[in-house]
Specification:
Number of helices of chain A: 0
Order of helices and strands of chain B: EEEEEEEEEEE
Number of strands of chain B: 11
Largest sheet of chain B: 6 strands, mixed
Oligomer: heterodimer
Distance between the termini of chain B: 37 Å
Number of strands of chain A: 11
Structural class of chain B: mainly beta
Number of helices of chain B: 0
Radius of gyration of chain B: 13 Å
């Protein structure tokens, strides 16, 4: 079974430029999460999807961040414009049945560097 | 003060030693307690899960939850160099929104 796929793995951009990250969750997983992880810190939730619906986006900085999950499968996270403080690893995760929602499967992440 | 506190380490021990990793928390509503392992440049992977209180064992790994003290532990027996990684504790009221510790970097010396 394929795991969570993310691309690109690495991205370097200049500040004020836009950037987008893509995630393909494990097949059949209805719940999808986007996290941000800074060096030496645990992941911080940005948004959680149940199928196509964003059910928890309270931590998403909506002035510059946006996300979508069309058709309830793949998801894209966008930053526009990027700031220096956005440099971090962006992790995508998915989970399966509600009874196992605590078990989140993570992709390898996209390491973003904003210069 | 953070909801979940975890010593960042690094914790360096010789191969074969018993490792003890710990987290404390402040929110008594947490019911789900997880330990994730994260290798460098990889995403976290779930190691152990405990619901409410008690102990759970899986091979060389044992997870303990003491809700009265708001303290959770992960023990690794017969530690191996391949156990070298960052260990993150995570907790939740609902099982969805996980609150994470900062992670402890563990180094097992051959």
């Amino acid at each position: 079974e394929a795991g969570v796929v993310q691309s690109p793995r690495y991205k370097i951009i200049e500040k004020k430029q836009p950037v987008a990250f893509w995630c393909n969750p494990i097949s059949g997983h209805n719940t999808l999460y986007w996290y941000l992880q800074n060096l030496g810190q645990g992941p911080e939730l940005l948004i959680r999807y149940e199928n196509e619906e964003a059910v928890d986006d309270s931590q998403l900085p909506k002035d510059r961040f946006s996300a979508e999950r069309l058709k309830g499968v793949d998801s894209t996270l966008k930053i526009q414009p990027a700031e220096l403080g956005d440099s971090a690893v962006y992790l995508c995760a998915s989970s399966g049945p509600a009874g196992e929602r605590y078990e989140q499967y993570f992709g390898p992440g996209t390491r973003l560097t904003v210069t | 003060q953070k909801e979940v506190e975890q010593d960042p380490g690094p914790l360096s021990v010789p191969e074969g030693a018993i490792v003890s990793l710990n987290c404390t928390y402040s929110n008594s509503a947490f019911q789900y307690f997880m330990w994730y392992r994260q290798y460098s440049r990889k995403g976290p992977e779930l190691l152990m899960y405990t619901y409410s209180s008690g102990n759970k064992e899986d091979g060389r790994f044992t997870a303990q939850v003491d809700k009265s003290s708001k303290y959770i532990s992960l023990f690794i027996r017969d530690s191996q160099p391949s156990d070298s990684a960052t260990y993150l504790c995570a907790m939740s009221r609902s099982g969805y929104q996980l609150i994470w510790g900062a992670g402890t970097k563990l180094i097992i010396k051959p």
